[in-house]
Every structure is written in C-alpha cells, then in structure tokens.
Amino acid sequence: MSKPDILSMTLEECREFVLSLGEKKFRADQLYGWMQKGTPLTEMKNLPGAFRDRLAAECDYRLPEIAKKQVSQKDGTVKYLMRMTDGECVESVFMRYEHGNTVCVSCQAGCRMGCRFCASTLRGKARDLTAGEILGQIAVIQRDTGERVGGIVMMGIGEPLDNYDNTVRFLRLISSPDGLNIGLRHISVSTCGLIPGIKKLSEEGLPVTLSISLHAADNERRSSLMPVNNKYPIAELMTACREYFEKTGRRVSFEYTLISGENDSEKDARALADLLKKGIKGPSHINLIMLNKVDETGFAAPDRKGAERFRDLLCDMGMNATIRRRLGSDIDASCGQLRLKNSEN
Ligand code: SAH
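Above: inputs. Below: predicted complex with S-adenosyl-L-homocysteine.
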C-alpha cells in the first residue's frame, strides 16, 4: 500500500491523518503550516523528534528539491529545475512583474500531447504530478526567494487537463485560506484544447482564467502543429470556449505562438481575427508569443518587426492582442528545455 501523500492534503485531511497517528490536532496545524512554507521534515523545529521520525517513516512527503537554478541578469527571472522525490525533474519559473510575482508551474513530468514546436513533449510523458508536487513548486520558490507569490500560470511542462483531478485539487489547495491563499483570479490554466476537460472545469466553480493554446486558425495548419486538433478540432473548441465564458463569466485568453512561415502571415492574422469574432462572441484576449527555438524541431520565430505587424493587424481588426514580454531570455526560460538537457546527461 502506498503511504499517504501529505502535501496533497487539505488541512482537514491532515488533521484526520495526524489524529489517526495518535497525535494532537494542533500538531497537524503546525505540520500543515510548515509544509505550506516548503520546509523539509528535519527543519520543522517545533515538532517533537519522535513525531517527525514517525512522519518520515509513515508518509510520502513529496516536497520538490531545487536541483538547479538559473537567475536572469536582465530581469531577475529565476528558472528552477525541481527534482521530485522519485528523481523525476520538472521546471518552474519565478517572474517579477510590476503587479507582483508570478510563478509558472509544471503539472506533469513530460507531456504526451505531441505539439511539434514544444520541447516538453519530445520524450513523451513519464508521469503525472500530484497536487502536492504542483503546490510544492510554489512553496519551495517562496522559501527560496523570500518573496510572496501572487499569481500562477500553469504553463510549464505538461497538460493540466490531461492531469485533471490533480490540477483541480491543486487549485483548491493553493487558493485555500488554510494554505497559501493565492486568489483563483490570479491563476491561469493553459490547455492545448482538451474539450471534455474544459467542460468539466467550467462546472467546478473555480474563477481561474482559461487560456487556450490556439497557434493556428484553420484545422489543417493546427493539426499539423498540434496533433490534439485531430481529436478536438477548432469549431468544437470555439463552442467549448464560448460555453466556458457563458458559464463562468471569465474572459477566455488565447495563446498564439508565432512561427516563421507557418502561422505568421497577414492571411493568418485575418483568419485568426475572423475566427475569434465569430467563434467567441464575447471578450477575448490574444497573447502573441515569440517562438522559443527548440533545436530538435527546426522551427524559427519571426523577427520582432514581423510580430509587431501581426499584432497591429489584429488590433486594426478590433482584436485585443499583445506580444508577451520575454522574461529571462538569457536563461532559456521557456519550459521543457532544462528537463530535456538534464535527462540527456
Ligand atoms: N499544455 C498546456 C500548457 C503548457 S505549454 C498548453 O498547451 O497550453 C505553455 C504554452 O507554451 C503553450 O501555449 C505552448 O503551446 C507554448 N509553447 C510550447 N513550446 C513553445 C516554444 N518552443 N516557444 C513558444 N511557446 C511554446
């Protein structure tokens, strides 16, 4: 039988577990507080040694460990390679914005979605992360930086809606007043477009921002870049997004990675504006991303001028579009590349 995964527990569950060990409830509250701060068992100073030994023997405390850290000299962005307790590594990024600190977390070790421009999927998926392992990335980063994290983007390695239950549990834990209490309105869940997951998420009563990785406005092009489009094509995806907005009142956001010669022509911009105007019928936002070059894929980004032209075309057609600021450009801060390099060593 597997040992209880205590970092994935709610405070109530943790109390029940600690009581079942014959300890007092206040010990659970102490333990829970330490876990939310990313503290290893050996450093939980106000817990009796015997209790800590018991926890070490009877629980699976899956606190990630910082395996590697790169700090951008340009903007203070910090990229972490986080080692899980079984040795699997994922990436997390700490970013400073004027409105506060945001962390980009991973939700799977690897990915099985197969997007052709993405480094995270090159070796497939090793396993899902538990809710606690996703939360642990944030706890460890707050401890390491000594700074409060106010926002989260689930845009690291993995597909959140392909790890649905752990993602939803994570969202409830991280936003709980018993835990780190990060507002759901400051959390983005990014998906390549798994429609059943989008539908389910709209029923959870979680006011997160849904972010769709679109990257192309016609099925032929999108399927060639993202195999998932063969299963969940664009028209159905647009319907799911519209329903998501109607049900939650939350504006859906679209990510569009610009890839030279693939999806960055004037015609592509027109098709994109057209698609969203007809498909969404509500407010939306387009986040243009400059492709981060992954050597294995052979794709390249357009130049800055080309990207600005693309954005201006969209804005001229009445769309709300911005080019994402590139933080940490000197440290390879797009996800998937560190895990990949690490696994090659
Ligand atoms: N699986 C989720 C979240 C992880 S990827 C999703 O697909 O949305 C986060 C974003 O980065 C996605 O929009 C993804 O398509 C994009 N992305 C992946 N590889 C990239 C690269 N090399 N350059 C720029 N963006 C990339």
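The two ends are 33 Å apart (CA to CA).
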